Amino acid sequence: MVPAIGKRVISEVTAPELLAVLRRVEKRGAIETAHRIKQVACQIFRFAIATGRADRDVAADLRGALKSPRKSHFPAITDPKEAKQLIVAIQGYQGTPLVKAALRLSPLLFCRPGELRHMEWAEVNWNERRIELPASRMKIGEPLIIPLSNQALKILEELYPHTGSGKYIFPFSRGLSRPMSDNAVRTALRTLGYDNEAMTPHGFRAMARTILDEVLGYRVEYIEQQLGHAVKDANARAYNRPMHLDQRTEMMQA
Description:
By secondary structure, this protein is mostly helical. The chain folds into two domains: 2-62, DNA polymerase, domain 1, CATH 1.10.150.130; 80-253, Orthogonal Bundle (hpI Integrase, Chain A), CATH 1.10.443. It has eleven helices and five strands; from the N terminus they run H-H-H-H-H-H-E-E-E-H-E-E-H-H-H-H. The chain has helices at 2-5, 15-27, 31-50, 80-91, 97-109, 113-117, 150-163, 184-191, 203-215, 220-226, 245-253; strands spanning 124-125, 130-133, 144-147, 171-172, 175-179. A three-stranded antiparallel sheet has the order 1-2-3. A two-stranded antiparallel ribbon has the order 4-5. It is elongated.
C-alpha cells in the first residue's frame, strides 16, 4: 500500500485508487489481509479528518466492494469418546494452579474464552452458587448467569487462596492487575497434545452444545441461553437471562 499511494497527499487519494490497491491484495487470495488494510486506511483517514488534512474517509465508500472472508469454525472435539479422553487429559495437567483451574473450568462453564479470562471474584455469588457476568462484558450486551456445578464450585474454592486477594479470578502471571494471557489455556491444550487444528479454547462451547443437545437431550433454548446467544421465544421476544435458570442449573450439573 505504501509504495502505491503512500507518498500521495491524503486529501487527493480517491476511493477507486484505494480499491485498486486492495484488489491487488485480494487477487493474491489474501482476502482477510485486504479487509485489515481497509480498516487501517479508515483509521488513517479519520485521523486526517480530525487533524484537518482531509475532508472525508474514502475508505468508508468501499463498504461491500471486497469479497467477504470465509467464515471458519473454531476446531472442537464433539465426539463423546474423544471428549472423555480430553477431560481425562485435563485432569492430569501438571501446570500452575491458575492455568490448571482455567483449563478445568473451560468445559464446565463453556463461556467465551475472553469472558473466562476477565472473570472477577466480585462476580461470584457464593450463596447462590453461580457467576453473574455483567452486560458490559457480554457480546450481546445482556448479563449472563452461569450456574456452578459442584465440580466447578470446588475448583473456584481451591483457587481462591491463590488469587482471591486480587480483582481477577485468573490474573496475569506477573501481576494481579490484569487478566490472564489469552494464550494460557491454548498453550495448556498444546502441552496435552491438542494443537489448534484439533481443539481451541473456544471449542469447548461447541463441545458443550453438541453433547448437551445430541447426547444428553437438553432443549436447544436452554443451551443457547447458557452460551450467551440471543434467543427468542415463539412470539419473537428475547428470553431474559435469568429465564429457565432452574433447568439450566440442572443442565450445568449434568
